[in-house]
Amino acid sequence: GQVYESESVTVATETTYTASIFAKADQNNWITISAIGFTTPSNSDAFFDLANGVIGTVDAGIDDARMEYYGNGWWRCSITFTTDASDTSGFIRNFVCATDNSTNITLDGTNSVLMYGKQFEEGPIATSYIPTSGSTVARAAETLIVPSTNVPETTAGTSIVLKALLTYADTNSSTEAYFVFWQDS
Hints:
single chain; mainly beta; 5-stranded antiparallel sheet; 4-stranded antiparallel sheet
């Protein structure tokens, strides 16, 4: 049999989406995130080993599958896929699994994993979790400023690493967006 949680989602055509969930091994170590009922991807799964932090089988149609460790056995697992020109809806399902590449388990009451924080959003990555209680929520704009006193000092050189998903609307201002602004003195 199968044990899963399912959510119906409405999508735009030819758009990239990411589905994510926080999960922890309990009686079982494996889960899958599945995109069901879309034309593209067509009923595709990505399997996640919660005990070993390993991504298992990833079906065609899933652009990316990721696991990020949050501590105490909790992982944030995600899939990313792009809809085609005819997709308008489908389902995101999270299965409890016994092994890689199989959504079937024995229905004897002893199969379980811990899951919370399911999120479905437009874009190529899972962004910070926003509790919504089932309603749609627009993400507020976020700004990160790190004072120079919090940056480790080095005389051997400087490196800057940025990882971000940015959206942009041109307002015809020459200073409306900075990826890095570096100033001496």
